[in-house]
Structures are given as C-alpha cells and as structure tokens.
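Possible regression after last week's pipeline update?

I re-ran a chain I had predicted before the update to compare outputs. Posting the input and the new output here so someone can diff against the archived version. Not blocking, just want to make sure nothing changed silently.
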Amino acid sequence: MKNIVVFILFASMICWMMFSPIYRHVLIIRQAALQQETDYLLEVGASGAYGYIDSAMIEQSRQRLADFGFNEESVEYMVTADNGSEATNPSAPLPRGTGLLLTMSYPYEDLFQIDRLIGMTPIGENARMSAFGVKMSEYVP
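New output (post-update):
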C-alpha cells in the first residue's frame, strides 16, 4: 500500500514538472501579446491623426488578439485620459500633451489548475492578467 501511495505522489510530481513550464510559457506569451497590443493601440490612438481610442479601434484590437488565440469577448478595455476627459470620443480628440491611458485585461483561464497536483492553490477564477500603458496625445486641432 505504501508503494502505491509513493508511486502516485511521484507520478503527480513528474507530471507537474513536465507540464508546469508549458503553462507558464503560455502565460508569458499571453502577457506579452496583451502588452504589445496595449502599446500599439496607444501609439495609434495618441498619434497626431487621432487623439483618441474609439470602439472601431478596440474591435480591430479584439480581432488581432483573436488571431493570437484570445477569446475576443473576454478582453476588457479601459480607456481614460489623465485630465478626466473622455478619451473614446472621435469628435473630441484629446489635445496635445494630454495623457491617454489604456488598461487591457484578460482572465487566466485555468492556466494554474495543474498546480493542484502538488497541493498549491491555483489563482482564483476571477483573476485577470493586465497590461497598462500611458502615452501623451500628439493631436493638434
């Protein structure tokens, strides 16, 4: 009986050691893709041609993230300006020197469930990874 318990514990440790780095790699790639998309949206939105990030830009961003394997509906965007004005209105772009802030978040989607094999408590099901960026608007009316 003792041998069976030792075998099960040893097998679960081996499984965790084999597959845990893969899940961590997926996490790192998702975080990098989320931050890259945040930086791209800020670069385009704060350019001299726009001065805002509107819903059309967000939908294009969702499509690009879907190409990376993200679930489009699960990505959340929070676009604000540092002076409190609306940063998503194309008819009122942010003037030059106003900060455009973007926070994108995405759920972990059970990436840490394999940690249960070694007795670690995985991250909560409502936890989200996020990416944040700030860029000064270059729009001149």
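Follow-up from reviewer: compared with the archived run. The first helix runs from residue 2 to 45. Marking as no regression found.
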